[in-house]
């Protein structure tokens, strides 16, 4: 064999071995994780059944966990802190059928999920973690920013139940929207007033977090995207392409209340992209005006008869009041019970 041929064959050998090794590692991690999850589920089962069998009152439950933690740590070492035992107990109570727990969920994911009391909300975060392959850190952030509540408020009862059952389904333009968008990751002090250019720059400096907040499927195309009409230049603040919906998503940022001229301008951008930028296979573009303040009545009238894929959505720089959002959802579900 020629030296070059030998080298090529050898490199192929390296690639094949690396692929098999990486695959084996991944399978090994999943197997270990699954075994750990099942073990913790059974430990939780034993604790709950002991409590029920002895009719231990709630106030004595923590004392039981403290005692177990001390004795099991002496016997087996780390892993049996009181908080971890409490998570195991909750895990069994939240998931009474261990086989139904998705294999992709790690123990740290499950510790976050079992903290959620509402079964609809917990089911949503479980499904969404699997769908979007969230890390535990990202799951924590999405919980803290009340993603379920923000998505649920735009849906009827059937939509909320479907959201909890399957996670967020992306089938039409409205499915990618959130109200409000939360930019707490920018860490902007409350007394700091930014210009639109400064806000845009901060979002670009935190592009990964911004994409996670936008949701699954977004890829960044460009900022201050120039379009030219009749020798006059216009600039779209941010342009994305959505891989799942197969369309451009145009975003304009407003630090003030949206005016009707802003809506007209976005409609023009959509027309330009539909006729000048789209290629075969692309769907009509989506336009989102992100604003700190939103006059619902003005938006309703200013968008009357315009492109149905043009949306005006609020954003905020700080975490929402989750209690208020949860109350709104419960009221929303209650209002639909009699329909």
Describe it for me?
The protein is α/β, with parallel strands linked by helices and 339 residues long. The chain folds into 2 domains: 3-115, no CATH class; 181-319, Trna Endonuclease, Chain: A, domain 1, CATH 3.40.1350.10. The chain is 55% helix and 15% strand. The chain is built from 13 helices and 6 strands. The chain has helices spanning 3-53, 58-76, 82-94, 107-113, 119-132, 136-144, 147-152, 157-166, 196-205, 207-214, 260-277, 296-302, 322-337; strands spanning 181-182, 218-229, 232-242, 247-257, 286-293, 310-316. The protein has a 6-stranded mixed beta sheet, sandwiched between helices. Strand 4 (247-257), helix 11 (260-277) and strand 5 (286-293) form a beta-alpha-beta unit. Helix 1 crosses helix 3 and helix 2 crosses helix 3. The radius of gyration is 25 Å and the shape is globular. The N and C termini lie far apart (78 Å).
Which structural traits does this protein have?
single chain; 339 residues; alpha/beta; Trna Endonuclease, Chain: A, domain 1; 2 domains; six-stranded mixed β-sheet; 13 helices; globular
Counted up, domains total 2
Sheet/helix structural class: alpha/beta
> How is the CATH topology of the largest domain named?
Trna Endonuclease, Chain: A, domain 1
Estimate what percentage of residues fall within beta strands.
Answer: 15-25%
**Overall CATH architecture of the largest domain:** 3-Layer(aba) Sandwich
